[in-house]
Design goal:
The protein contains five helices and no strands. The chain is globular, with a radius of gyration of 19 Å. Helix 1 runs antiparallel to helix 2, helix 2 runs antiparallel to helix 3 and helix 3 packs antiparallel against helix 4. The chain is an all-alpha fold. It starts with a helix and ends with a helix. The longest helix has 41 residues. Keywords: Cell membrane, Membrane, Transmembrane, Transmembrane helix. It is a multi-pass membrane protein.
């Protein structure tokens, strides 16, 4: 048996396990998102905690989006047998946007200007990479 074929099979199995784990995490994050939306509905009668409830719900919805994008990246890799860079950039951009949204929230008590600046710079760098990637790769090659 060829060693490269064995390594490819092992890699495929590892990706299936990672896909399964990511799917479980997606289910947990969806549970959290629905739970936070329930908390948000309950917070409508309490204006003092409404802002925190909104940010918590949006944070969990962003987390669901990150997991959906990550699963899409794994599925694309399994289908095409190659890493699609723009999908990884999309996941990174959504994850950084979530972090930026959470960290810059007015309800964040642990705000640090340096950390906020680092998150903003990282988001801008990934955004520029995304822009350049979309300009270089023709649209028809990015479609599934």
């Amino acid at each position: 048996m060829n060693i490269v074929d064995s390594l490819r099979r092992g890699e495929f199995l590892v990706y299936l396990v990672v896909l399964f784990i990511t799917s479980l995490l997606l289910m947990f994050s969806m549970y959290l998102a629905f739970y936070r939306i329930y908390d948000l509905i309950l917070a409508l009668q309490q204006p003092e905690i409404l802002a925190t409830a909104i940010y918590n719900a949006l944070s969990d919805v962003f987390l669901v989006i990150v997991f959906v994008e990550l699963i899409d990246t794994f599925i694309t890799y399994i289908e095409q047998k190659r890493i699609v860079v723009y999908k990884i950039i999309d996941v990174a951009l959504v994850a950084l946007a979530r972090e930026l949204f959470i960290y810059l929230a007015p309800v964040n008590k642990e705000f640090s200007f340096e950390k906020a600046l680092a998150i903003i710079i990282a988001t801008l760098v990934i955004g520029v990479i995304e822009y350049l990637q979309r300009r270089i790769i023709p649209t028809e090659r990015r479609r599934r």
